[in-house]
Structures are given as structure tokens and as C-alpha cells.
Write a structure and sequence with these properties.
Layout (H helix, E strand, L loop, with lengths): L13 H9 L8 E3 L6 E4 L4 E11 L6 H4 L1 H18 L3 E11 L5 H17 L3 E9 L4 E11 L14 E5 L9 H4 L4 H10 L4 E4 L4 H12 L2 E5 L12 H6 L6 E5 L1 H14 L4 E8 L5 E4 L6 E3 L9
Parallel strand pairs: 4-5, 9-12
Antiparallel strand pairs: 1-2, 2-3, 3-6, 4-6, 7-10, 7-11, 8-10, 9-11, 12-13
Length: 310
């Protein structure tokens, strides 16, 4: 009898693996929210929740150290987690970092890495309070950021409502040409949105507009339609597909009711100069996830592609 080959991770995908792990995790007893959003949510005080997020960056996967330099890599290592805190409507407070470094790496590389990391931490008032260091074959960093959010300001992926208008901050596409290393975490924009408007759902765009909007749709059990012509392209975007699927833009993607959306459009610019664009609408789940093509005006299903590690 032929021996059956063991199942391999590459066949179940990154998010299939996450779901597999989540199915094995016992039901939460004290935490409010675990796997499935940008941050874990933990009971903290009467009026606030504690937020916790982790992100790992690996040389050769997330960055080219020789091309971009350690300062920018260190900055990005913290920025991606700050973006997660923003997506929940929170404020970052503390961070920890575990660093894997080759033993023959010049000390200056590590100095430059921490210079970029700590410069951004200072800008946002985040305190580095601990971590770990180990030997590795390449530069690896794993960052945990702890923040807080007022209970009334917490925004999840799972609360999008049928009829909501879909918004994004900034422009999308072509982040590989530099933005992915020097983007500005949208903490200020998130604070403005949650303080002044009723935002139903939100996520940061790390794996592409299509992939991250799909996560909101799955968690909220709804569908959506977006218009290609309304998606603001960055100067580095090759085309609309670039904006839909490239990833690592780290802009905010959020939804609000039509009534609230009108308030956002009319008033957001009073608080911030950041570009804000409505690009579509939340639909019933049976509608699926569709896009109105720019050139043909056809309404077609969004392709199932975007960045995944496996």
C-alpha cells in the first residue's frame, strides 16, 4: 500500500493555517477578542480596553537589507504594528521586540536598525520596555505593541452593515517602490474618525485592498461592490490591479452608514489633510464581492489573489 504524503502548509495557505490554529484554541474566558482582527482586545479598565498586536519581519521576505538599509527596516518593524493599533481605533503605549541576528553582522547594522525603530517610537510616544535577542541566519524581528482604546471608540472588522459606504485613506498601489518602508501609520486619522464619527468596521491595508476588504466581508458576513475608477492610485501604481492586489499600503479601509458617510465627507477635511475616498458599498452576502470595471463598466467578481506567505 502506497504511503500517503503528509499534508503540507503550502496546500492550505497562510489563512487556512490561521483558521486551523484558531479552531484548536479554547474559547476565551477573560479576553474580549482573540484571533481574527488586527489586535487582541483585553478587558483593562472601566472605560478602556487593552490592545495587543504582533508582527514579524524577515530579511528576504519583507525587506532587502542591502537595498534599503537597516534604519528604514527598523522603522518599518514598529510602523506595521502601529498601523494595527490604528485599525482598532487605539493609541499605542508600549512595545517589545525580539531580534534574530547573524553573529557576523556588523554592530552598526543593529545600531541603525534601533535608530530607525526608536525614532518612530519617540514620534508616537511609544516606550520600548523589553524583548529578546538570538542568533539567526538572517535579520529577523518580531514586534509586540500594546495600546489602549476607549470602549466606545473600538472598531472591529466584523461590524460592517449592508448599505455602508466603503472608504480608504490615501492612495494605493506600487508600495514595493518605497512606501512600504516609510509610510505614516494612520493613527491620527483613526483617532479623528472614531472620535467624531460612527465607524462600523475598519482594517489596515497590509495584504492589498481586495484581500483586506474580503476579511471585513467574511467577518461581517456581507458582500460588497467597489468601483475601479474611484480607487485613488499612487504615482507608483502600474494600474488598477496594482491598487487592488499589491499590498503593504498601510492605509485605513473602513465603512460607515450612508448618513454617517455624508458627515465624514463633509467634515473630515476640517481635521486632516489626508485624502479620504469613498470607493464602494456594502451589499448583502449573496451579492458576493464584485468590482465595477473602469473601462467596460461591467460588474465582475473580484479575483481571488493577493499576497499570502504560503
Amino acid at each position: 500500500m502506497k504511503r500517503q504524503e503528509p499534508m503540507k502548509i503550502k496546500y492550505i495557505s497562510e489563512f487556512g493555517l490561521i483558521k486551523r490554529v484558531n479552531n484548536k484554541v479554547p474559547a476565551l474566558k477573560n479576553a474580549v477578542l482573540g484571533i481574527g482582527d488586527d489586535c487582541a482586545v483585553i478587558n483593562y479598565t472601566k472605560n478602556k480596553y487593552l490592545l495587543s498586536t504582533m508582527d514579524m519581519l524577515i530579511e528576504g521576505v519583507h525587506f532587502d537589507l542591502r537595498k534599503f538599509g537597516a534604519f528604514k527596516v527598523g522603522r518599518k518593524a514598529l510602523a506595521v504594528s502601529l498601523s494595527d493599533i490604528a485599525a482598532m481605533g487605539g493609541i499605542p503605549k508600549y512595545c517589545l521586540i525580539s531580534l534574530g541576528v547573524p553573529e557576523d553582522m556588523p554592530v552598526k547594522v543593529v545600531d541603525d536598525f534601533y535608530a530607525g525603530f526608536l525614532k518612530l517610537a519617540k514620534e508616537y510616544g511609544v516606550e520600548l520596555v523589553g524583548g529578546d535577542t538570538n542568533r539567526s541566519d538572517k535579520l529577523i524581528c518580531d514586534v509586540c505593541v500594546i495600546g489602549e482604546v476607549k470602549k466606545e471608540n473600538l472598531v472591529l472588522r466584523s461590524e460592517a452593515k449592508i448599505g455602508d459606504i466603503i472608504f480608504i485613506t490615501g492612495c494605493l498601489g506600487g508600495s514595493i517602490y518605497g512606501k512600504h518602508l516609510d509610510f505614516t501609520p494612520r493613527l491620527m486619522e483613526a483617532k479623528i474618525l472614531t472620535k467624531n464619527f460612527r465607524i462600523n468596521s475598519m482594517i489596515d491595508i497590509s495584504d492589498g485592498l481586495a484581500g483586506d476588504l474580503k476579511r471585513i466581508l467574511e467577518e461581517s458576513k456581507v458582500g460588497a461592490v467597489i468601483a475601479q475608477e474611484k480607487i485613488p492610485l499612487s504615482k507608483y501604481a502600474l494600474n488598477c490591479d496594482s491598487a487592488l492586489y499589491d499590498g503593504e499600503d498601510y492605509e485605513l479601509l473602513f465603512t460607515a452608514s450612508e448618513k454617517e458617510a455624508r458627515k465624514v465627507v463633509e467634515n473630515f477635511k476640517k481635521f486632516s489633510g489626508t485624502r479620504l475616498t469613498p470607493i464602494g458599498k456594502i451589499m448583502p452576502k449573496k451579492f458576493g464581492f464584485r468590482v465595477i470595471e473602469k473601462d467596460t463598466n461591467r460588474v465582475v467578481p473580484v479575483e481571488k489573489k493577493g499576497f499570502e506567505h504560503f
